[in-house]
Each structure stands twice: as structure tokens, then as C-alpha cells.
Amino acid sequence: MARVDVAIAGGGIVGLATALKLLERAPGLSVVVLEKEKEVAAHQTGHNSGVIHSGLYYKPGSEKAKTCVEGRRLLVAFCQRHGVPHEICGKLVVATKESELPALAELERRAGENGLSGLRTLAPAEFRKIEPHAAGLRALYVPATGIVDYRAVSAKFAEVIAAAGGRVRTGARVTALSSSESEVRIVAGGEEIEAGLAVNCGGLQSDRLARLDGAEPGLRIVPFRGDYHRLVPDRAGLVKNLIYPVADPRFPFLGVHFTRMIGGGAEAGPNAVPALAREGYTRTSFDLRDAWDTFTYPGFWRMAVRHMGMGLGEIHRSFSKRAFVKALQRLMPDLRGEDLEEGGSGVRAQAMLPDGRLEDDFRIVTHGRAIHVLNAPSPAATASLAIGERIATRVLAMRRD
């Protein structure tokens, strides 16, 4: 039986960042990251829009706000130190109707409380100097937002972990996990592992891993798929950097928006529709267990009834390119249907409570000698090093105990 000090289930960006911070804080610690796929960052991390978030949206004082602002600073410093391509290009948040203006002002207020500086509210003549094809009544310019490839960041995390003496094992699906007061026993990739401590960073599978350990998470992961379209190459210049709508405060989703990508080109999206597979990236993806878990969960139906109108609109936009383009034309009237082609998609691990509320902040619980990261929503990629630092602090305190 293999023995390690700390085993981390999940090779997404949060699991890797946790391993990295543990090895920084405690050189010589034996740390292994267990990833079930053939490569790291195969799911949420590798399918997001590549935005380095500023911390604009989050309630002041919340963990999301604190870790985003801190994590952005750490992420940018890491990318600079290790030569990972990135750019702090700024973005516009555009109000397209009068009813959105108070929410735009609230975003500016929150940004100030979260320590952001340099924001400006701009009239159309001013914001079109930044995004010539954007349209709206007013726009908030956020200079601290940027772009990066989180697959490249994760690959560099894994490289640094290995150089520090840690291990990243791919093809190592965790099929058993049980913690006691003194150790954790894990079966991963058919191998038994005994760990002094374990961290569950399973993302889309985090609630199931917690239940393997005998922990009751008090929530269920309900997957939401988001589809993107790419701007065709000769029209990608319509987007200079990032253009966002004013988000509906009732939802953790930011609405369809435009993003220039660090590798070139630009994309638009995503929508947000319930997925029939936790790791299904097409409209026809289906997994019986995943669908059963969603549709037999009372919280899902309570959420669906509460937000039926918005949900039906998202589903319609998922299947109708015309409706998708119409939503984007609120921000960019010059956009045409032929300017877009099918892009990729991502699946968000949305933690949902039994009463149908969407868990909006991070949720990390301890059970025996295991720490379970049950909810790490956006901006988790941006905030990954700050989240990893917090988990590492908890792990090291448990080791001392």
C-alpha cells in the first residue's frame, strides 16, 4: 500500500493549486494529486472562457470577493514568473436599458469596497473608443480584468509540483475513500493509498466523493452546460477585449458576453442550461445516473418552478442560433448570424441546496481526516491560488493536531 502525507482527489486547477501551496509551505511533504482523466484540467478548468476576473461582482466581505482579489494578484504574478501567456486587457460591463443603471452603479460601489481601482462609468461616445461596436446607455470600464489559458496555467502548476517533489497521477479515478480520526484510505486507479490527510477537489463529482467518505454534503451538484460560439476569423475584430452585460443578481451566471481569447480570436456565450451529464459537452450528451440524480432531487424542481421563465429562455437560446444572436445583439447590434460558428462548451458544477437555492459562495467542510471542497464556483480559476492557500493552511493545522 502506497503511503503519502496528503492525497488530493481532482486534477483541476483548485486541486493543483492546493498541492502547489502545500509544497511551498511545507517542503518535503509527500503530496499526490489523483486525476481520473488522462490529463489535468480536463473538465471545468479546461472548458471555461479564460477570463481573469477582477472581483467586481462579489458581495464585499464574502470568500468569493476576498479570494478573487487576492487570487488574481497571485495568478498574475505566477504567470509572469513562469512565462504563461496572459494579458490584463480590461472589460466593459454595459447597461442596455434604463432598468439596469442602478445595478451598474451597485457594481461600481462593490468594486470599490473590494479594493478595485481605476473604474470609470462611461457614456456611449466614451466607451466606443474602447469597444467601437458595443452599444448601450452606459458602461462600466473595469481595467483589472484579463485573459489567460487555464489549461496552460494548470499544466505549469503540474510542472512546478513535480519539480518540488510532488506527484500528479493521471488515469487514477478514486473509487473508494474513507477517513478516520488518524488516516484516510483511498483506492485510485486500482491502487490502495494510505494518506495522513485527503482533500476532495472533485468539482463535478465532489458531492459523490464526499458521500464515499460518509460525509453528508447537504447539497447536490446539478450540472449546467454552457455553449459558446466563435466569431469567424474575419469578424473577430468586432471584439477588442471583453464586453459583458449587467448580470441578473438572482443568478450566479453572468449572461452571454464577448471574450477575446489569449490564443487569438474571440468567442461569445455561454448560455446556461441543465445538463443531462455531469461531464457531457454536447446537447445530446446523456448519462443515466447523472440525469437521475438531477431530476429526482427536490431542490432542482423547486429551482425550476421559481425561475421557469428564465430557464425556458436559456434552453431556447441553446437550440436556436437566431435567439442566441438576438441576445448578443443587445450588446453589439452590428453582429450577424453568419459572424458566428459553433464553438466549445463547458459544464458548471452548480451546488444546489434542497430548497432550490443555488449555493453562491465557496463551501469547504471537514470530515474526519478529509477536507471536501463541495462548491468552488466562478471565479475559482482566477482565485485558485488563494483558495489553495486557505486549504493548505487548514491541512497543515490538521497535521499539527
Structural class: alpha+beta
Mean pLDDT: 95
- The CATH architecture category of the largest domain equals 3-Layer(bba) Sandwich
Count, helices = 11
Largest sheet: 9 strands, mixed
CATH fold node name of the largest domain: FAD/NAD(P)-binding domain
- Binned, the helix content reads 25-40%
Instruction: Count all strands and give the number.
Output: 20
> What is the CATH homology-level superfamily of the largest domain?
FAD/NAD(P)-binding domain
The residue ranges in which pLDDT falls below 50 over 5 or more consecutive positions are none
Tally the structural domains. 3
- CATH class of the largest domain reads Alpha Beta
Radius of gyration: 21 Å
- From the N-terminal CA to the C-terminal CA, the straight-line distance is 24 Å
Beta fraction: 25-35%
Write a structural description.
The chain has eleven helices and 20 strands. The chain has 401 residues and is of the alpha+beta class. Strands 5, 6, 7, 13, 14, 15, 16, 17 and 18 form a nine-stranded mixed beta sheet that branches. The radius of gyration is 21 Å and the shape is globular. The two termini are 24 Å apart. The mean pLDDT is 95.
Summarize the structure.
With 401 residues, the chain is α+β, with helices and mostly antiparallel strands. The chain folds into 3 domains: 154 residues, FAD/NAD(P)-binding domain, CATH 3.50.50; 53 residues, no CATH class; 139 residues, 2-Layer Sandwich (D-Amino Acid Oxidase, Chain A, domain 2).
